[in-house]
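Archive record
______________

***
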Amino acid sequence: MSHLHRALSDCPVCGADLVTTRLGCSGCGTELVGQFAPCAYCALDDADHELLKVFLTSRGNLKELQAHLGVSYPTARARFNDVLDRLGWLAEASADESGDEPDVSGAGGDAPGPRATPEPQPTASEPRAATSDAVRDQVLAQVAAGQLSPAVAADLLDNLR
């Protein structure tokens, strides 16, 4: 079988959603014609698939996702939220949150365990402005590298104020 290409989700001419209307069997040549439900996962790129794979295999532990990505916890959470947004689930996830902090104990799942130490707060010798500038620079660098969407970056930067 030749190389399979990732299906487009938007029309390259007008930008409207594309609809899958034909499926074919590579074994026997059978074809099905109709309108088939879109696959939200299929529109994600390889990096997003890898992020979801790590998140799922770690049983939803964002601390392990953070370690895999090599970024800060807020950045890992922002990247995960960006994927949820592209899947159309961010508003759903936000509505489900009850204000509880996520499990960052490293134990995964619902296992009890000590909470991770929060990120250090600036001290008198380290003004908040310097910390905010460093975080801002990190967020902007990730946008420039294509690792973070501008929308998520804007939310992160708004929270710095």
User: Anything to note?
Assistant: The chain has a mean pLDDT of 74. The longest strand covers residues 31-36. DSSP finds six helices and two strands in the chain.
